[in-house]
Structures are given as structure tokens and as C-alpha cells.
Amino acid sequence: MKNESFKNPSGKDSPVGKFQADSSTGEFWKAGKSILIFILAFLYLVPVIVLFLTSFKTQIQIMEKGFGWFFMPTLMNYSNVLLEQGFLRYMTNSLIVGLASTFVTLIIGGFASYALVRFNFFGKGTISFGTLLLRMIPPAVLVVPIYVLWSYFGLADTRLGLVIIYVGLNLPFTIWVLISFIADVPVELEEAAVVDGCGPWRIFFTVILPLIKPGLAAAAIFTFRIAWNEFILALVLTNRMTRTLPVATTIYLTDTGIEWGNITAMGTLVALPAIIFTFLAAKQLIAGLTAGAVKG
Amino acid sequence: MAQQRLFKGITPYLFVAPAVFVLAFTCLYPVLKGFELTFYDWSLGTPIESRKYIGWENFVWAWQDPALFNSIKVTLLFTAFAVTAELFLGLLIAFLLEKGIKGIVVLRTVFIIPIMIAPVVVGLLWRYLFDANFGLINHIVSLLGFEPKVWLGTPGLALPAVIITDIWQWTPFMFILFLAGLQSLPKDPVEAAQVDGATTWQVIRQVKLPLLAPVIWVAVILRIIDAFRSLEVMFIMTFGGPGRETEVLSLNIYKTAFMSQRLGLAAVNAIFLLAFILLLSMAFLIIARPALSKK
Fold first, then answer.
1. CATH number of A76-290
2. What is the pTM of this model?
3. Which of A112, A143, A289 is closest, CB to CB, to B16?
């Protein structure tokens, strides 16, 4: 390997002054970088800003030549979406499915992660390996058999059916994240609890769970996000009554002569929780995104 | 001591049982059921009794199906271009912005938004941006003095448009992983190289990149797997069109099952997707295992 070269520092003639030279030119570089960062951040957000602005435009303003950055905003699109089109029912469905699957995933995933970190038992390797593999299965592979099976079991067109499949889809990731957090809990705490006469379940709920709150938060946000955003399974597994928001959004899209005002309003409402989570919990999100890939 | 034995006996199995049961029911069983479906001729919407056992006929059909091979080609093209661009852009931004600057926290937060919002919303938002009549992109194109284009309806333009959308959404993922990787690099080799008089470029090429290699591999493979799974953005932006130019394998499976109503054939196509994903996952585990167990 080429990186051998840094292993023998030629200590005598090393130019110590080089570092000072670096820091003086660094000032320009730093200012340049800050500007670069803001330009990048703005460019990155332009599509989202366009979505947001358009949702406050009238159909006439949208059809004008060119893109208007300044205009008289209207709430008409939002009142259309919120009042007329069953939106509240779809939002309730999304909320129920999202919250229920998040709660169940965290509990079940927490149990499994605890066992995988702290206990030695026959089949442990198979389970952790299998979990990693299952994480990769694409929804498109599942969509046909799940549709067939769920129809057969009477789970199709129910919110329960969606919750079950979302718990399954999210468990591998949740277990993966929680394992790394539980491994960081000092074993001495649990040993002390055993001496005090605690059983494994009480230890899990009273010692482990409170100590892995950041991990639970990261896993919860990602699970809720999948459940809130998931499209293809929800498309085939729901009907008019149990439809979730992403599916509802596409139904307005397939119409000829798209009403961009209404659709962007709906898109904004669907994206809103994600944007709020992002600003509230950026740290947990990064922990979740980098889990397993980077050990910090 | 009694406690100790209790922990080792049946308890672990009670802890993992719910997860194992749910995963078996929602992932393993459906995958097996998918294999079974490949041997049947069964139209969507007809009762399960009406399906007909036809042996390997669906596989024969799939082998002669240009749509299947087209969708594999589209998936590979989409993945190759998108992930390559995301890799280099991600590395570039990470190295440019690596050193401690206040604004980077803002940028990192802003960068998470495309990852967090629903793919359906990403799709409709870029469909609007690429819209031939009202889209911002055609507006900019005509401001620059070029001819506006029907981006999503013109062969040769639709796939690039979808790839650009993916790059917008997922470059931040690469950047975040690389930044985290750079921040957790050991300081000594970098400083030693600087003491030796290495230029910034030499430090990056010969010290940081080799040290970052495991993270880069993990990021690339995770992104490839994700790109193979993506479907919503094409579903919304083009529904696979024009023709079948943007019909990725996932979308092909959906269309075969729920538009052409051929569940057996769709199950065969799903096996192709599964095979690709399994290969990639194996690669991921081989590469990520050392990184995971190092801890």
C-alpha cells in the first residue's frame, strides 16, 4: 500500500513553519467555504421552496409564463385539500398506522436487540445474520405475495394489515440501531440489578430502556418515516377508507390536467412532519443514517 | 445463581420470539410464497382456486420477455449513473467542507430534508420542476436562450431527469456518511503526512481516502441496494415512460402484477430483483462485517 509513506516521519527537517503558513491563507478559504456552504444549502432547498410557494398560488398564478417568486398568497389550495377530498381521513389513517407501527417496532425490536447483545443462545448468529439480510428485501419483491396473503387472511384493506407489514419492514433497521446503543450500556448496571433481585424483563424496562433513549428516538423517527412515506404496499393494500396520504396524493396526480396548486399543497402537508423532525432531531437522524456504516 | 441460569435458559428465546415471528410472517413467508406463485398462471382479482399450475412456463415466458430485460437494463443504467454521481459529489463536498466550520451544521440539517421527505413528494415535486409548460427548469432553459423541452415525455431525456432527481435526493446521504467517516479518522497519520510535507491533495489521496475506504464501500453498496429498490419517483414522474425508458425492475413487477394482472410472471420478475439484491447484500456483509465487529 502507498500509505506506508507516512509511517516513517523524517523528524529532523520537518517544516514546523508550514502550519503557520496554512492558517494565514486559511482565512480566505474559510470565508469562501462559508459562502459556498450557503449557496449549496440554498440551491439544495430550491425544489422544496418551489413546492412550498406553489402551494400558495392560484391556478392563474401557476399558469403564468415564468416562475413567479413574489405573488399574493392564497390559502385556497389548502382549504380545497383539507375540506373536500377526504384528506382528514387519509391523514388519520397515516397517523394511526405510523404511530402504531412505530410503537410495536420499538418494543419488539428492543426485546430482540437486548437478547442479541446480552445473551448467548443457540441460533443467535442465524438470527442476527438473517435480520441483516431481511433488511435489504425490496418492497417490490414483497408486493405480490403480500397482496395475495393479506387478501387471504382478511388483512387487505385494513389498517392492521399495513401496521403488521410496516413492523416487519422496520424491525431489521431498528434492531441494528438499538444493538449498538445497548452494547454501550455498562454491564455492571445490570449485574447490580440482578443482585437486587431483578428479573431480565424488569432489567430491560427499568435499566436498559431509559439508558438507550437516544437510540429509541432515532429508531422511532426512521420507523415513523417509513410508515408515513411508504407508497407501493399501501397502494395495493388499502381502499378508499384505509388509504394513507402518499397513496391519496398520487390519485390526484393521475388525473389529466393536473391541478398543481392542490397537489403541491398536499405534498407540503405530507412533507411537513419530515421537515419538522429534521430540524428538531438532526442529531438523532445522523446517528440513524450512519449507524453501522461509521463507528464514531 | 438461579437467576443466572434463568437468563440462559428459555429467557433469550422469549425476548427474540416476537421479532422472529413477525419477520417470518412479513418477510420470509411472503418470499417463499412468491417462489410458489411462480409456478402458477393466475390473474389478479380471480379467486385462488382459479389459478392453474403451469410448471416452469412463467420462467420460459420471462426469459423471452423483452420488457423484463429492458427493465433490468434501465435499473442498471439508473443505478450506475446515479450512484457514481452521488459518490463523487458526496466526496467532493465532504472534502471541501470537512474542517470545523459553524455553517456545516446548518448544511447538514438542510441536506437531510430530501432524504426524509416522502419519495412520492420528491417525485411530484420534480415532476413539477420538469413540467413542460409551468416547470422551473424549462423557465431557466428558455432564460438561457435554449429551446424548452418535454423532459419527461422525450426518449433520451426522461431517464436523465429521473437520475438527476435521485442525485438531488441521495447525494446528501453519501456526504453525511463521508463527513462522519472523516471526523472519526485517526489524527496521527494525517499529521504525520503533513509533517512530512505532503500537500493537501497528497494527504487526501494517499492518507484519507485509503483510511476512508471502508466507509466509502459501505455507502456505495447501501446506495446501490437502495437504487435497486427505488420505484416511487419513476412511478410518479413518468410511470416508466416514455415507452419503457424509465421502467425499472421494481416498477415492472408492479405493472406486470397490477396492470397486466399476471401474478405468476410478476413473481418471476421479483425473483430476478431478489437475486440482484441478495448478491449486493452478500457483498455488503463481506465488506461491512469487519467494520461492524471492530467496535
1. 1.10.3720.10
2. 0.86
3. A112
Contact B229 A168 (CB under 8 A): no
Encode B190-217: b = buried (16+ Cβ within 10 Å), e = exposed: bebbbbbebeeebbbebbbeebbebbbb
Q: Is A202 on the interface with B (CB under 8 A)?
A: no
Instruction: Give A 81-140 residues with CB within 8 A of chain B.
Output: 107-109, 111-112, 114-116, 119-121, 124, 127, 129-134, 136-140
So what's the ipTM on this one?
Answer: 0.87
Q: Domain residue spans in chain A?
A: 76-290
Q: How many domains does chain B have?
A: 1
Residue B173 lies in a domain: yes
Angle at B135 between CA B132 and CA B136, to 5 degrees: 135
Separation between Cα atoms, residue B124 and residue A253, nearest integer Å: 8
Q: Domain for residue B19, yes or no? A: no
- B139: chain A residues, CB-CB within 8 Å: 66-67
Q: Which residue of B has its CA nearest to A64?
A: B134
For residue range A69-93, what is the model confidence (pLDDT) as tens digits?
788 788 888 888 888 768 889 999 9
Q: Which residues of A touch B12 (CB under 8 A)?
A: 115, 119-121, 124
Give the phi and the psi of residue B53 in degrees, each rounded to 5: -75, 125
The string of pLDDT tens digits covering residues B154-199 is 899 999 999 999 999 999 999 989 988 888 888 888 888 888 888 8
Give contacts of B215 with chain A, Cβ < 8 Å: 293-294
